[in-house]
Amino acid sequence: MNETFEIRSIDNTLVGKSFTNLTIVEPNKYYQKGDTHSRLYVMCKCNCGRTQLFRYDGLIRGRIESCGHCYDNQYIILNEYVSILKIFDRYIEDWVDILVNTECVEYLKNVQHGI
């Protein structure tokens, strides 16, 4: 624990509250030592597994959505999906062309034969 924080009170109602990708995991209310504004910090666990202190007002106002470290991994995964989708997109376009042309040929054959 960072030595610049101190626990002043405990609030069990905070535990389990979720804010986007963060969930409060401790009932302790942390405050920075010497902070005249008494800003409340809470211990949260991010969906990526990382645990750290976050300002509570930033969580409830939606300014803080994750630990910030998991975005790098998300972008890597997203780029991989986009690459895969681009490959499938090319194949899909080819298959649509083949199907459309095949259906057109079959349709013309049927029209010619009076079917």
Q: How many helical stretches? A: 2
Tally of discrete structural domains? 2
Order of helices and strands: EEEEEEHH
Number of strands: 6
Q: Point out poorly predicted stretches.
A: none
Q: Structural class per helix/strand content? A: alpha+beta
- Span from first to last CA? 81 Å
Gyration radius over CA: 28 Å
User: What profile does the largest beta sheet have?
Assistant: 6 strands, antiparallel
The shape is: rod-shaped
Mean pLDDT: 78
- Helix % is 40-55%
Explain this structure:
The protein is built from two helices and six strands; from the N terminus they run E-E-E-E-E-E-H-H. The protein is of the alpha+beta class. Strands 1, 2, 3, 4, 5 and 6 form a six-stranded antiparallel β-sheet that branches. It has two domains: 5-60; 69-115. The chain is rod-shaped, with a radius of gyration of 28 Å. Helix content is 42%, strand content 24%.
